[in-house]
Amino acid sequence: xxxxxxxxxxxxxxxxxxxxxxxxxxxxxxxxxxxxxxxxxxxxxxxxxxxxxxxxxxxxxxxxxxxxxxxxxxxxxxxxxxxxxxxxxxxxxxxxxxxxxxxxxxxxxxxxxxxxxxxxxxxxxxxxxxxxxxxxxxxxxxxxxxxxxxxxxxxxxxxxxxxxxxxxxxxxxxxxxxxxxxxxxxxxxxxxxxxxxxxxxxxxxxxxxxxxxxxxxxxxxxxxxxxxxxxxxxxxxxxxxxxxxxxxxxxxxxxxxxxxxxxxxxxxxxxxxxxxxxxxxxxxxxxxxxxxxxxxxxxxxxxxxxxxxxxxxxxxxxxxxxxxxxxxxxxxxxxxxxxxxxxxxxxxxxxxxxxxxxxxxxxxxxxxxxxxxxxxxxxxxxxxxxxxxxxxxxxxxxxxxxxxxxxxxxxxxxxxxxxxxxxxxxxxxxxxxxxxxxxxxxxxxxxxxxxxxxxxxxxxxxxxxxxxxxxxxxxxxxxxxxxxxxxxxxxxxxxxxxxxxxxxxxxxxxxxxxxxxxxxxxxxxxxxxxxxxxxxxxxxxxxxxxxxxxxxxxxxxxxxxxxxxxxxxxxxxxxxxxxxxxxxxxx
Length: 587
Hints:
By secondary structure, the chain is α+β, with helices and mostly antiparallel strands.
């Protein structure tokens, strides 16, 4: 028996007169009493079936029993539609299948939601993910993902990179997020960790002589979830010996160009522009700036040093944004609330009305020179932040994005890319009372900082870089430390004792001491890339089987309890009250 000769979306006028068998799902049925029309759907599209009782009475009789999402097999003749019945909106719209035999292969129970229904609750969608995946939007997203990964593999192979798999069960290492821990039955009381990334392993591969490595890797991070963050991620992982930054940047740009061309037919211009971290922070208040709109930040620290407005005069940093709108008092109050959400104590402003007059409670405290510096065209507002430099960047960067969305300044059809380079190597953690690595502890200092990074960590720069697309961090990487002594100095600065260094990273330190070549690389978030490419606001809509925001799979109910016998085999005993209730599944 032949299930199908073509996919539903492949039937074309050149098939007119041919007898074909098609199979798929009933997308819709229109019963006209005599004639029955069924849209038969599969991954490639829709083909209209015509069930005519005069031509095939048994098939027409079966057609009256069809409901949405029944699985059907139909055999018949391809014919042209009548001119008035042509559907120009679908590729198969000029033809239809006059059915001679029709089989209901599989019936469907009543559906929890219709595939064309909008605003379906996400938990309901995830609970019935197999049904949700049939929707055109999800079919498109998962199909685009496959196309994108194919383009990535072709580009990496063309650059001489070998695809090598690394273990899923590995050693717990401090890399930022919490590890997912896996108990060992054979080594009772010991635990594996699921990798947050193959960072150390890819370094070891390069040290082991595989000078160009890549992998489409699964990574796991036990962290709180957001619309753009999940616990299981897929990333393109890249590492090379004797690294050449220009070669690496060019190859990654070619990969992005290939993926966007294959998936969307979009031609991207390269090379992508570059900004240092300091430039991006100064101009956009962010290390992942969205370049699809203007609203750049400007500095007013020096011009307000002697200001009569004490908030400006006493602040370490004063910066502002010129906004092409004269905000009302109510609008300014709402903007102030946005600023306060990001840590601001308030929001100073100047509004230049349509007559060019300034409206602001702080104007009387500003000198003529200051007002001249802030003057704008009529119908503009100037919004200020005054505080520590990091706080000012955080507040104005967030306000800039908020205003870009609210004022519809963002060009949704544009693709804007930028490399960010020369990141700070370390940042101070108030919570831990120590320095922490901005990227990760294996990132080497930028040229010129090899001798001073641990004596002056506040000013040390890293040989690190990120690729930003439309305001999203899509890829990040660095050149690595290949000298055992420099790696030990970094660990010491991060307050890892020699004993902990040996316990956690002894094998890496040993490898670095046995002829490690200079090496570096980059990693791209496949899910985040897909989110940007498909213009999806939610990462879970570009992943086939994601968890919800509570880290639960509503479909299967995972994570779930295990039998007491299995816990005993693993040498695990739950504390009283732990594991007594199942996690909410959303069922």
